[in-house]
Amino acid sequence: MRSAGTDGSLYRFAKDGENQVEFPLHNYPITQLLNRMKFSEELEEKFSRLPALYPVKRSALIPMLLYAQDEVGHLTDEVVREIAQRLGLTELEVRNVISYYSMLTTKPRGRYHVQVCTNISCLLRGGEELLEHCKEKLGIGHKQRTSDGLFSLEEVECIGACSWAPAVQVNYDFHENLTMQKMDHVLDGYRRKA
C-alpha cells in the first residue's frame, strides 16, 4: 500500500510482525520501475540486446545514447537518467561521455543537422566559405537551429572525408566535393524531403 507522508513524500507500508513500518518510496527500487522512460518498441528491443553484445555492459553506452538521441531528438535529463539506470551507471558518468563527444547533444537540433568541416583539407578547398554560405542560406549561425526546426548548423573539425574536401555531413549522410551550388542542391533536397 502507498500513501503520502506529512512531508508530501510517498511511502510504502509493510507489516513487520505486529508493527506497520514505513519505507520512503524514493529509496525503494519500485520507483525506478514507476519512473521508467518508454522508447519505441524497436528501440526497446535494441536496448535489450545491446549490453549483451559487449564484454562490459558500460560499452553499450555510446550506441544507446546515439539511438536515443535519434529517436528523441536530443539527450534530455530523462533520457540520461534512463540510460544510466539501464547500464548501472551514475548520471554523471553518462553526462561525462556526452560532454566529450560532439556528436551527442543535450540541446535540440534541427531535423537535419548540417555539419560543415573546416579542418585543414576542407579549409584549403573552401570549407570556411561553404560554412558562411550555409549560414546565409539557412539564416542561422554555428550551433543554431532554424525557427521551423528543420535545420541546425555546426562547424566541425573533421568528418574523415579529407580526400573529398570540402565535405559536409547531414545527419548520417556525407556530401563531398561541394561547391556553393552543390550545397544549395543538397539543402533544397532535404527541404523537399520534409
Task: Write structural notes for this entry.
A hairpin with a 5-residue loop joins strand 1 (2-4) and strand 2. Mean pLDDT is 86; it is low at 1-17 and 21-34. A 5-stranded mixed beta sheet has the order 5-6-4-7-8, with helices on one face. The chain has a 3-stranded antiparallel beta sheet with strand order 1-2-3, with no helix packed on it. The termini are far apart. The longest helix has 14 residues, at 180-193. It has 8 helices and 8 strands. Helix 3 runs antiparallel to helix 4 and helix 4 crosses helix 5 (91-100). The protein has 3 domains: 2-30, no CATH class; 36-100, Arc Repressor Mutant, subunit A (Orthogonal Bundle), CATH 1.10.10; 112-193, Glutaredoxin (3-Layer(aba) Sandwich), CATH 3.40.30. It has 194 residues and is of the alpha+beta class. The radius of gyration is 23 Å and the shape is elongated.
Assembly of the depicted chains: single chain
The named CATH superfamily of the largest domain:
Glutaredoxin
Number of helices: 8
CATH domain topology of the largest domain: Glutaredoxin
- Percent of residues in beta strands? 15-25%
Q: What about the largest sheet?
A: 5 strands, mixed
Number of DSSP strands?
A: 8
Q: Can you identify the CATH class of the largest domain? A: Alpha Beta
Q: What is the succession of H and E elements?
A: EEEHHHHHEHHEEEEH
Unreliable residue stretches: 1-17, 21-34
Helix content: 40-55%
Q: Which geometry do the CA atoms define?
A: elongated
* Spatial strand arrangement across the major sheet: 5-6-4-7-8
Structural class: alpha+beta
What value does the average pLDDT take? 86
Radius of gyration: 23 Å
